[in-house]
Amino acid sequence: MTAHYATTATPAGPFTAVVDTDGAVLASGWTADLGDLLPVIHSTLRPTAVEERAELGAVTRAVADFHVGELTAIDDIVVRQRSGPFVEHAWDVLRTVEPGKPLTYTEYADLSGRPAAVRAAAMACARNAAALFVPCHRVLRLDKSLGGFRWGLGVKEWLLAHEAHTIAS
User: Record's PANTHER family (predicted)?
Assistant: First the structure.
């Protein structure tokens, strides 16, 4: 399978998305290096070839729109990831977390139906290959500190501030 990728300039830095032949996001994040994204795609979904494109249609539009304040632009983008049942469910749950209303890992575990599975919920965030479209940046530590983020705490901080500011406007 040949996938496509494109990099878009954003206020938080370059953003690259890798999409399947049908346009579903396989991996994405704030990087210009395709090598940062391919290893996080599940082995059963990993493309055999990847071709660069100038843009990826609806995916590129959603990235641009989100970064200028249309926070729901990412909601209808199809994402394709694989893992165990709880992690896949937890990723679906992440897509329901509203912008500007971040959760703690404890609240996220509870929302995912397994209140005692805080570590598993955190692991779901850490293994999320489709950053932005599966908004793991909306999950914080119990003390409301940022915790980790594959794309750097500066990007996570920018995203949370962008969402909070856009909602407040």
Answer: METHYLATED-DNA--PROTEIN-CYSTEINE METHYLTRANSFERASE
Domain that holds residue 49: 2-68
Task: Name the residue with tokens 């509203």.
Answer: 98
Q: Please, what is the angle between helix 85-94 and helix 118-126, to 10°?
A: 70
Exactly one of 136, 140, 155, 159 is catalytic; which is it? Answer: 136
User: What is the three-class DSSP state of 164?
Assistant: helix
Confirm whether 136 is a catalytic residue. yes
Enumerate residues 6+ apart whose C-beta is below 8 A from 20. Answer: 1, 3, 26, 45, 47, 80
Q: Are residues 90 and 145 in the same domain?
A: yes
3-state DSSP percent of the chain in helix, strand and coil, to 5? 40, 15, 45
Contact between 50 and 18 under an 8 Å Cβ cutoff? The reply is yes
Query: Mind listing the pLDDT tens digit for each residue in 13-59?
Result: 999 999 999 999 999 999 999 999 999 999 999 999 999 999 999 99
Domain annotation covers residue 76: no
19 φ/ψ angles, rounded to the nearest 5 degrees? -125, 150
